[in-house]
Amino acid sequence: MKRLKDLEVAIRYTCEANIAHCIRSVEKQTRTPHRIRIIKDLYPSSVAMQRALDECKSRYILVLDADQTLMRNAVEILYNKINCTKNVFQACGYVSYP
What we know:
The chain is α/β, with parallel strands linked by helices and 98 residues long. It has helices at 16-27, 45-55, 74-85, 88-91; strands at 2-13, 31-40, 60-65. Residues 94-98 have low confidence and may be disordered.
């Protein structure tokens, strides 16, 4: 499993019960981030997001909420897409499952 030195994942949480599944989904990625930061969300979402961005020092940051989980290759797909398009906003999209 290759570690991506220029990627961090910040996980925002309010309830510790949800966070274990999210952390496991990040740790089981085909390409893992350099660091996983856990951000206690005591503030409005915009403040918590800014705090996560301030604490992360990598070139790329993936912010998740504690109740989210990732498909096993999600980080690799996003990372490759960003490096291919050179545009973070084009690389990310919303996926909805029925």
